[in-house]
Design brief:
mainly alpha, 73% helix, globular, membrane, transmembrane, MARVEL_domain_protein_3, transmembrane helix
Length: 168
């Protein structure tokens, strides 16, 4: 018996379509990427990597800049893919976003532990609280986009003249 592998969610936030939620996710990705890009170049933000702590700050800033530019580009591809209903254009965002969610989760836990080890218990707890909340929102938005991606996959498999498949 075949299993149903359609969308995980039926809508976004209970009142928007998956298409609208996916566009909102792409726009949010572009805005967050652009704001972060401006922030790291306008302010004297100190950034470190978790894995390689010996890199000079300017090298870390350049690496982060390249990542942010790619994030903005991939978010733009998501928006265009959603509007044009082209799954292939959405796929880079789907893959990147889940990897970033995992990385963000690890970073949140690591940073909270660093705060706590340095006897900044309240800062560590607040960072962990708001960090986990951010990861949750990020994963939800990923689920919205992934659900729309699955919906497009399902529609492509049915052909243009068949009735839609309804879950029982």
């Amino acid at each position: 018996m075949p299993t149903y592998s359609g969308p995980v969610l039926d809508n976004c936030c209970g009142c928007y379509s998956l298409k609208t939620g996916s566009i909102i996710s792409g726009i949010a990705g572009m805005i967050m990427g652009a704001l972060t890009l401006v922030y790291i170049w306008v302010t004297d933000a100190k950034m470190k990597t978790i894995v390689i702590d010996t890199l000079p700050p300017d090298v870390v800033k350049i690496i982060v800049t390249i990542n942010l530019i790619m994030t903005i580009f991939i978010s733009l591809m998501l928006i265009l893919g959603v509007i044009k209903r082209v799954k292939f254009m959405m796929l880079p965002w789907v893959i990147l976003a889940i990897m970033l969610a995992i990385g963000l989760g690890i970073s949140v836990i690591y940073t909270a532990i660093v705060f706590i080890v340095h006897k900044e218990i309240l800062s560590g707890f607040l960072f962990l609280l708001f960090g986990i909340l951010s990861v949750g929102v990020y994963i939800y938005m990923w689920l919205v986009v992934y659900s729309y991606y699955q919906l497009l996959r399902e529609e492509a498999g049915r052909g243009p003249y068949q009735k839609p498949h309804y879950r029982r």
